[in-house]
Write a sequence for this structure.
């Protein structure tokens, strides 16, 4: 770790106790992460002690349930605003740049990115922007290392099987506009989105998605803190990976 990270960790231990970062410290040990599910093998970072559960019940976690309920309650307005933006402001949707690749048939409109809300998107998707701000950003449930965006798969698009970088955040999907022929597979289990409902899964497990329908499929994706992580761990992980990205020239 760098001196900056050491200083941040020391301040967190002083506030929360010497053992508060034990799992983060174990994650950083040489050879760490070997104790993982085989379908997490390509994830770079595995925080020990989190339940190795690919699919989660969106309503089962008291911390996350208010986000789920608010998104589902506002899905119709969110869809109407998305449709208007897609029809009238198509240029604001960009090819999605996943850390593994960039896909032209995977389009995105960001509401939260680089640790902050994208204010320009409030004009295009005011309902989604407000709900995300009130329920996820202001409550610090969103992982500031990641993002929230409308994810649109064009007809025929396939997201190849992959693992995301780590297991300490979790991916929430609000099904905004779902044609027939769309599905997602996580750890070998395939499900379909139900329009107006949320799916929640641990994307450190291998997953893939495809749109075999005849029109675009859109979900609103939010990267939330895994509900089994603690406040001191979240602070430490944010400091750690912000510093890693700085050293790699990514920020």
């Amino acid at each position: 770790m760098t001196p900056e990270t050491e200083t941040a960790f020391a301040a967190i231990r002083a506030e929360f106790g010497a053992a508060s970062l034990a799992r983060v410290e174990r994650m950083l040990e040489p050879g760490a992460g070997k104790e993982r599910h085989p379908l997490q093998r390509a994830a770079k970072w595995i925080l020990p002690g989190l339940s190795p559960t690919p699919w989660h019940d969106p309503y089962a976690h008291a911390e996350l349930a208010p986000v789920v309920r608010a998104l589902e309650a506002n899905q119709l307005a969110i869809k109407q605003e998305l449709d208007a933006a897609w029809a009238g402001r198509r240029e604001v949707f960009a090819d999605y740049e996943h850390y593994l690749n960039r896909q032209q048939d995977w389009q995105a409109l960001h509401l939260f990115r680089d640790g902050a809300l994208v204010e320009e998107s409030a004009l295009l998707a005011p309902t989604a922007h407000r709900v995300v701000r009130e329920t996820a950003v202001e409550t610090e449930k969103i992982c500031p290392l990641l993002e929230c965006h409308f994810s649109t798969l064009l007809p025929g698009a396939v997201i190849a099987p992959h693992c995301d970088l780590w297991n300490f955040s979790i991916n929430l999907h609000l099904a905004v506009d779902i044609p027939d022929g769309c599905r997602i597979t996580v750890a070998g289990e395939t499900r379909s989105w139900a329009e107006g409902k949320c799916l929640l899964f641990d994307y450190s497990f291998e997953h893939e998605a495809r749109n075999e329908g005849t029109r675009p499929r859109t979900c609103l994706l939010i990267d939330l803190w895994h509900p089994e992580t603690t406040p001191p761990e979240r602070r430490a992980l944010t400091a750690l990976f912000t510093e890693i990205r700085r050293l790699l020239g990514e920020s």
In short: The first strand starts at residue 55 and ends at 56. The domain at 55-225 is CATH 2.60.120.330 (Jelly Rolls).
